[in-house]
C-alpha cells in the first residue's frame, strides 16, 4: 500500500485573518486613478493613502495608532499639480515619504511625528527630469537617500535625494515600463515593460546586464527579485490566462517554471518576504490573496493557501517585517485598501500555542539603518542590508534630521511639465523659428540692396 508523502514546512498552515472593525481606518476618499500601483504605503509609524482630489494630486497620512473613521476635512499632502501615481516610504527614515505624479515630478516630504497638522504644500526635495508622467518609484534597499523612478517617457532615473540630483539616467527601454525592483543588496535593477521583455540593469551606469522575453500576453507584467539569483514574475498568456513564472537571473532565455493561475482579468501584484521565502499574490479587483513558498530546487514553488474575502481590493500596503506582532506568530501583515475608503489590516500567522519568541519563524530581518551612504554606493560599493533581531521587539534608532538641498526654482519653472505644456512649448518654438526666419530673410534682402548701391 502506497502512502502519500506530505512536504515538511513551517508555513504549510499559515492563515490570514482580518482585523476587527474598530482596528480599521475608514472614511478615506480613495483615488479613482487607473494606474497600476498600490495607492497605499505603510511603515512602522504611518499609513499613507492616495486620495481623490480636484485640481491636482493629494494623499493622506494617518498615524498607525489613529484607527477608526477619518475626518472628511483631515489634512493632506497637496503639493502635486497632477494626480498622484505612486507613494513610497523611505526605509531608513520613518518620517520621509516620496511621491510621483502626472506633473512629471518626484517629491519627497517630511511628515512630523504625530501626523499632519494642516495641508502640506511644500516638499523637502523636488526631483525634476522626466518629460512625461511618472508611474512608479522605489527606494534603494541598502543605501540611504537613493531613489529610483520610472516614467512614461521610457526612462528610469536614479536620484540622490540628499543632493536633489540625478545619479543615473537609464534609457534602454522602448516602451512603457510596468515596474522596477532592486535585488537584495541593490547592485542590480530589474524591470518589466510593455514590449514583453525582462531586463536586468546595472543601476550605476544604466547598462543592460541580461535581457529576455517575458510573458506572452499583452496585459501588464510585474517582476521582483526573490533572492540573489532568482526573479519572480506575474503576467498573462496569449489566451489572457494569469500566470506566474520563476527565472534564473543569470539566464533569461526561458523560465525555470511557469504555471497558470486562473483566467481573471486583474493585474497580479507579487509581494516577497525574504525571511520566510514566501510570495503573496494579490490581484487588482480580487478578494483573495494567494501565498506560495519558494525553494532553491525543483519545483521551485509550492502553493500554500489563500486568504479569501468577498470585498475586492484596490491595493495593498506591506508592513515592514520589523513591525509584525511576533508574540502571535504573525509572519506578515498587509493593509488592504477597499474601494469604499476602508483600510483593513490582514495578518498572516503561523498557528502555534506558545507565546514565546519563535526563532525559526523570525530570523534576523532588515533594520532601519542603511549599510551604505549614497556616495559610497555611487562609488561602486555593495553591502548586504543591516539585519536586526526581533526577539526583544523593534526599537527605532535615533537619526539626525534630514537637511534638504536648496531648490532650483528657476530651472524647474523652465522645464515643461506634462504633455499639454510640451505641446505648447513645441508650437511656441515653431512660431519663434518662423519669426526668426522672416527676420533673416528681410535682413538678407536689405544686405543685397546695400550691395547693389
Care to describe what's here?
By secondary structure, the chain is mainly beta. 10% of the residues lie in helices and 38% in strands. It has three helices and 32 strands. The strands form nine sheets. A four-stranded antiparallel β-sheet has the order 1-30-29-28, with no helix packed on it. The protein has a four-stranded antiparallel β-sheet with strand order 3-4-5-7, with no helix packed on it. A hairpin with an 8-residue loop joins strand 22 (242-248) and strand 23. The longest helix has 35 residues, at 418-452. The N and C termini lie far apart (117 Å). The mean pLDDT is 90.
Short characterization:
The chain is mainly β. Helix content is 10%, strand content 38%.
The helical percent reads 10-25%
Low-confidence region ranges: none
Count the DSSP helices. Answer: 3
What is the topology, as strand order, of the major beta sheet?
A: 1-30-29-28
Alpha-carbon distance between the two ends = 117 Å
Main β-sheet: number of strands, strand sense, barrel status? 4 strands, antiparallel
Radius of gyration: 24 Å
Strand content: 35-45%
Shape, principal axes of CA atoms = globular
Category by helix and strand content: mainly beta
Amino acid at each position: 500500500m502506497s502512502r502519500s508523502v506530505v512536504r515538511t514546512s513551517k508555513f504549510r498552515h499559515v492563515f490570514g485573518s482580518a482585523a476587527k472593525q474598530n482596528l480599521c481606518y475608514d472614511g478615506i476618499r480613495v483615488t479613482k486613478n487607473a494606474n497600476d500601483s498600490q495607492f497605499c504605503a505603510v511603515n512602522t509609524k504611518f499609513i499613507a493613502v492616495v486620495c481623490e482630489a480636484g485640481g491636482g494630486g493629494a494623499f493622506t497620512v494617518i498615524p498607525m495608532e489613529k484607527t477608526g473613521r477619518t475626518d472628511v476635512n483631515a489634512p493632506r499632502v497637496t503639493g502635486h499639480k497632477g494626480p498622484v501615481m505612486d507613494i513610497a516610504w523611505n526605509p531608513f527614515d520613518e518620517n520621509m515619504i516620496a511621491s510621483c505624479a502626472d506633473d512629471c515630478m518626484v517629491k519627497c516630504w517630511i511628515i512630523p511625528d504625530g501626523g499632519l497638522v494642516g495641508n502640506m504644500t511644500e516638499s523637502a526635495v523636488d526631483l525634476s527630469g522626466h518629460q512625461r508622467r511618472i508611474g512608479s518609484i522605489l527606494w534603494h534597499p541598502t543605501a540611504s537617500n537613493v531613489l529610483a523612478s520610472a516614467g512614461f517617457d521610457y526612462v528610469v532615473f536614479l536620484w540622490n535625494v540628499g543632493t536633489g540630483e540625478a545619479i543615473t539616467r537609464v534609457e534602454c527601454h522602448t516602451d512603457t515600463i510596468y515596474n522596477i525592483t532592486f535585488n537584495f543588496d541593490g547592485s542590480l535593477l530589474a524591470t518589466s515593460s510593455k514590449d514583453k521583455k525582462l531586463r536586468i540593469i546595472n543601476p550605476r551606469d544604466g547598462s543592460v546586464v541580461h535581457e529576455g522575453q517575458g510573458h506572452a500576453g499583452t496585459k501588464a507584467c510585474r517582476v521582483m527579485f526573490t533572492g540573489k539569483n532568482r526573479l519572480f514574475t506575474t503576467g498573462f498568456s496569449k489566451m489572457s490566462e494569469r500566470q506566474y513564472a520563476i527565472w534564473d537571473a543569470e539566464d533569461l532565455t526561458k523560465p525555470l517554471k511557469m504555471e497558470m493561475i486562473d483566467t481573471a482579468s486583474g493585474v497580479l501584484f507579487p509581494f516577497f518576504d525574504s525571511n520566510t521565502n514566501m510570495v503573496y499574490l494579490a490581484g487588482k479587483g480580487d478578494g483573495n490573496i494567494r501565498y506560495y513558498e519558494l525553494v532553491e530546487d525543483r519545483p521551485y514553488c509550492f502553493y500554500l493557501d489563500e486568504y479569501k474575502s468577498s470585498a475586492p481590493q484596490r491595493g495593498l500596503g506591506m508592513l515592514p517585517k520589523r513591525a509584525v506582532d511576533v508574540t502571535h506568530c504573525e509572519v506578515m501583515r498587509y493593509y488592504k485598501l477597499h474601494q469604499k475608503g476602508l483600510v483593513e489590516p490582514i495578518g498572516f500567522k503561523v498557528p502555534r500555542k506558545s507565546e514565546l519568541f519563535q526563532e525559526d519563524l523570525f530570523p534576523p530581518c532588515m533594520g532601519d539603518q542603511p549599510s551604505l551612504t549614497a556616495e559610497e554606493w555611487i562609488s561602486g560599493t555593495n553591502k548586504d542590508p543591516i539585519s536586526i533581531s526581533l526577539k526583544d521587539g523593534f526599537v527605532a534608532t535615533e537619526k539626525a534630521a534630514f537637511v534638504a538641498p536648496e531648490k532650483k526654482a528657476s530651472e524647474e519653472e523652465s522645464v515643461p511639465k506634462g504633455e499639454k505644456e510640451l505641446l505648447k512649448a513645441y508650437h511656441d518654438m515653431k512660431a519663434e523659428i518662423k519669426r526668426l526666419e522672416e527676420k533673416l530673410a528681410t535682413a538678407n534682402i536689405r544686405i543685397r540692396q546695400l550691395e547693389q548701391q
